[in-house]
Amino acid sequence: MAELLKGAAVVAAMNEKLTAEVAALKEKGVTPTLAILRVGERDDDISYERGATKRCDTVGVAVKNVILPADVSQEELMKNVEALNNDNNVHGVLIFRPLPKHLDEEAVRQALKPEKDVDGITDGSLAGVFTGSGSGFPPCTAQACMEILDHYKIDCKGKRAVVIGRSLVVGKPAAIMLMGKNATVTVCHTKTVDMPAVARQAEILIVAAGKANAITKEYLAPGQVVIDVGINVNEEGKLCGDVKFDDAEPIVGAITPVPGGVGTVTTSVLVSHVVEAAKKHCN
Question: Which of 19, 73, 105, 151 has the smallest CB count inside 10 Å?
Answer without folding.
Answer: 73
